[in-house]
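Following up on my earlier thread - several people asked me to post the actual chain instead of describing it. Fair enough. Here it is, all 195 residues.
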Amino acid sequence: MENDRRTRLTPDERRAQLVALGVAFLADNPLDQLTIDDLSARAGVSRGLLFHYFGSKQGLHREVVRTARDAMLHATEPVDGLPPLDRLHDTLERIVAFVREHSGTFYSLVRGVASGDTEVRQVVEEARAEQAERVVAVFLELGAADTPMLRIALRSWIAFAEEALVESAIGTDLASEEIVGFLERSARGVVDALG
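Reply from S.P.:
Thanks for posting it. Predicted structure:
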C-alpha cells in the first residue's frame, strides 16, 4: 500500500494553511489571479474543501486579504511609551521595512481596492482607517485639535503615503531613512497646513 504523504490537519490548521498559501501567492501575483483550482492544487486538497471553508472565491479572497492586512497592522503597531514623534518615526521605519520585505503583498493590498468585491475593498479600507487613527493619535498628543479637517487631512495623507511607499520602497534603491524622513515631514506638513 502506498504511503499517504498528505498531513492530517485539524480543520482550523487546514484553514490556516490554505489562507497562508493564499497570502504567499500575493507576494508574486495579483489577488484576482488567485483561484480555487490553483490553491486546491497547491495545497493538495479538493476544490470542495475550499468551498467548505470559504464559501466562494470571493470568500477566499476576503480571508486572504484580511490575514495579509492583519499581518501588516501587527508589524507596524505603534510602540507604547514612545513620545509621539518618536512613535511616528518608529512606525514609519517599520512600515517601510514591511513594504520592502513584503512588496508584492503590500502592492496587492493597496491595489486590491480595485477588486470588484465590496467586502475585499472594505477589508483594505479598515486597514487604512486603522493607520489613519494611529497618525491622528500622534498629532492629538502633540496638541492638534480633533477636528473633521484634521481627520480628513491625515486620512488623505495615508493614501499619499501608500503611493509614496509603492513608488519609493518597491523597486528603487532609495535609502529607507530617506523614505521615512520624507513621510514624516509630509505628515507634519499636512497638519501644519491646517493652520
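The chain has a mean pLDDT of 90. That should answer part of your original question.
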